[in-house]
Amino acid sequence: MEMREPKVDKVTLNIGVGHAGADLENAKSLLTRLSGCKSVATTAHVRNPVFKIKKGDPIGAKTTMRGKVALDFLKKALAVKANSLPAKSFDSRGNFSFGVPEYIDIQGAKYDPQIGIIGFDVCVTLKRNGYRVATRRRACAKIGKKHLLTKEDGIEFAKAELGITVV
User: Structure pTM?
Assistant: First the structure.
């Protein structure tokens, strides 16, 4: 494997509920069931009086997958989108995200009447070997411009490795 070759760092699943309670617990249990990983509640960063949200209120759930588990789930989730994504789904660093409108579209997921129909977001973070130098504790350094991923690199990786068609 070459240093400049992109790879999937992590796949993050997110459900925004907007408030705490039974809906949030259902979202957490759904993410745990779909991914096989523990899910956590996400909190509000800012106050929004229109929706009666204070800073620190639990308003959603997320889970992060890495390695082979992440790639297997990503292939199932992309099948829902017919392995096609628009170019605007990719950001300037090559990462991409898309939404799944109903969890029952995922292969192997069964409908749960207690949860109902919930959609979720899938965010894929890409990296290259050597990105650790920016996050390590000792001798932290910046990543050079030539080594950073670009939108075009992310699109090429998605086409070659994941079989996605970009429209």
Answer: 0.89
